[in-house]
């Protein structure tokens, strides 16, 4: 008898904190993401902090999307509306495809927690060179919610009816 059960496939993820003020000592959001992804069985292949500068952000993310050993990237910070918030502008030009549903779902989930303030969120996701990229706000709560309510299930091969892991071998098709 054939089993419908799938085995978990651990992925290598990189975490990027975008901040003009955070250091490793006080980067709670980045540390939370690393802790959550490792708790779920994935590997934190790298974790960095860069200033909220679109070119510094783009350099780091470009390095990771060029690395065949990194399957996904999660960023935290720089998704608001202030003059220094530039994560979406930095990363969107790198996308081969935008995952529109991620930002939409993130704001739906956030609405239940923070009401209309969620309209200020510019959470975004996409795929670049076969690497998934998720850009979350800088708050620790937003990182927890984004990971536990959206990203974790989609980066779990056991999630039915479909998940992002099962399409990974086809991301670079031409």
UniProtKB/TrEMBL annotation:
<dbReference type="InterPro" id="IPR036425">
    <property type="entry name" value="MoaB/Mog-like_dom_sf"/>
</dbReference>
<keyword id="KW-0501">Molybdenum cofactor biosynthesis</keyword>
<comment type="similarity">
    <text>Belongs to the MoaB/Mog family.</text>
</comment>
<dbReference type="InterPro" id="IPR013484">
    <property type="entry name" value="MoaB_proteobac"/>
</dbReference>
<dbReference type="GO" id="GO:0005829">
    <property type="term" value="C:cytosol"/>
</dbReference>
<dbReference type="InterPro" id="IPR001453">
    <property type="entry name" value="MoaB/Mog_dom"/>
</dbReference>
<comment type="pathway">
    <text>Cofactor biosynthesis; molybdopterin biosynthesis.</text>
</comment>
<dbReference type="Pfam" id="PF00994">
    <property type="entry name" value="MoCF_biosynth"/>
</dbReference>
<dbReference type="GO" id="GO:0006777">
    <property type="term" value="P:Mo-molybdopterin cofactor biosynthetic process"/>
</dbReference>
<comment type="function">
    <text>May be involved in the biosynthesis of molybdopterin.</text>
</comment>
<protein>
    <recommendedName>
        <fullName>Molybdenum cofactor biosynthesis protein B</fullName>
    </recommendedName>
</protein>
<feature type="domain" description="MoaB/Mog">
    <location>
        <begin position="14"/>
        <end position="158"/>
    </location>
</feature>
<dbReference type="InterPro" id="IPR008284">
    <property type="entry name" value="MoCF_biosynth_CS"/>
</dbReference>
<dbReference type="InterPro" id="IPR012245">
    <property type="entry name" value="MoaB"/>
</dbReference>
């Amino acid at each position: 008898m054939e089993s419908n059960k799938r085995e978990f496939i651990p992925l290598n993820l990189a975490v990027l904190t975008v901040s003009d003020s955070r250091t490793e000592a006080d980067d709670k959001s980045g540390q939370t993401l690393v802790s959550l992804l490792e708790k779920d069985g994935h590997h934190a292949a790298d974790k960095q902090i860069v200033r909220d500068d679109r070119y510094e952000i783009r350099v780091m993310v470009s390095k990771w999307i060029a690395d065949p050993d990194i399957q996904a990237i999660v960023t935290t910070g720089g998704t608001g509306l202030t003059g220094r918030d530039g994560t979406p502008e930095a990363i969107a030009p790198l996308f081969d495809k935008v995952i529109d549903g991620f930002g939409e779902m993130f704001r739906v989930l956030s609405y239940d927690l923070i009401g209309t303030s969620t309209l200020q969120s510019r959470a975004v996701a996409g795929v670049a060179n076969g690497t998934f990229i998720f850009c979350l706000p800088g708050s620790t709560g937003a990182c927890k919610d984004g990971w536990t309510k959206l990203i974790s299930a989609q980066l779990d091969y056991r999630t039915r009816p479909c998940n992002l892991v099962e399409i990974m071998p086809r991301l670079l098709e031409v």
